[in-house]
Design a protein that fits this description.
Oligomer: single chain
Number of strands: 12
Helix content: 25-40%
CATH architecture of one domain: 3-Layer(aba) Sandwich
Strand order of the largest sheet: 4-1-7-8-9-10-11-12
Largest sheet: 8 strands, mixed
CATH topology of one domain: UDP-N-acetylmuramoyl-L-alanine:D-glutamate ligase
């Protein structure tokens, strides 16, 4: 399968270290860095997971690098601090999406972390160009998403959009709400998930989205796609950092 991903990406950096005391000048932990990992994040993590599932992926994303730097206590895998650098990026160029050969792809994924790369008008335009478009966005939903096939949001994003979802039946029918250990909700049905020991939830939503897209392309069945996506997510949350399947 061949998939096009459009969205804002970052570099996820994890700096692990020893934490054995508090600073004398303030009641904050002192971390002595011992190791560091770096990997593509946000939409870049969606791409990594799609590729891990065997998909061929083309990627349209921002040129200016956004960094998410996390400081983690190695002993307990406890997140102490996150520092975001270059938290906004340049907008998606009309000429770039205007040159896309949409028929080359089995599906299009819009992974919108709301850093300025994807505008509502871009989402509306893209969803009119291809018959199978998946959207994951932190924006407040609206009519611009009416032609999207499926909208994945987490529970906090759902609460932010509650008035919209209740008032707009078109949106309501498309929304999949991920709820962590409580599974996910779709079309008034809850899909429970297996309980596993959780090390890190960073990037779990990206993994869910990738699993959902890949299985739906194969089966054309949302229930099967949701179940597979949840299986994928239970794998990555048992790993440290932002991981792939």
């Amino acid at each position: 399968m061949k998939i096009l991903v459009i969205g804002d990406s970052c570099t996820d950096i994890f700096r692990y270290g020893k934490v054995e005391r508090l600073a004398p000048e303030a009641p904050v932990p002192v971390i002595v860095p011992t190791s560091e990992t770096s990997s593509p994040g946000m939409a870049g993590n969606v791409v990594r997971n799609l590729e891990a599932l065997g998909a061929e992926v083309d990627f349209i994303t921002n040129r200016v690098e956004i960094k998410k730097i996390r400081y983690v206590c190695s002993k307990y895998n406890h997140l102490l601090l996150r520092v975001d650098e270059n938290d906004n990026c340049e907008p998606l160029s009309e000429s770039v999406i205007g040159d896309v050969s949409w028929s080359d792809y089995d599906a299009v994924v819009i992974s919108d972390y709301c850093k300025g790369f994807v505008h509502e008008l871009d989402i509306e335009y893209i969803s009119k160009q291809h018959p199978l478009v998946f959207l994951d966005t932190k924006k407040i939903l609206g009519k611009y998403a009416h032609d999207v096939n499926c909208i994945k949001i987490n529970y906090q994003e759902y609460k932010n959009n509650l008035s919209v979802v209740v008032a707009d039946k078109v949106i309501e029918d498309k929304v999949i709400v991920t709820r962590g250990k409580y599974g996910c909700d779709f079309r008034f049905k809850n899909y429970p998930t297996q309980e596993v020991p959780v090390k890190d939830i960073s990037g779990a939503g990206d993994t869910f989205l990738a699993g959902l897209v890949v299985e739906y392309i194969k089966s054309k069945d949302y229930e099967k796609a949701i179940t597979f996506a949840q299986e994928c997510t239970t794998i990555v949350v048992q790993k440290s950092g932002v991981s792939t399947i």
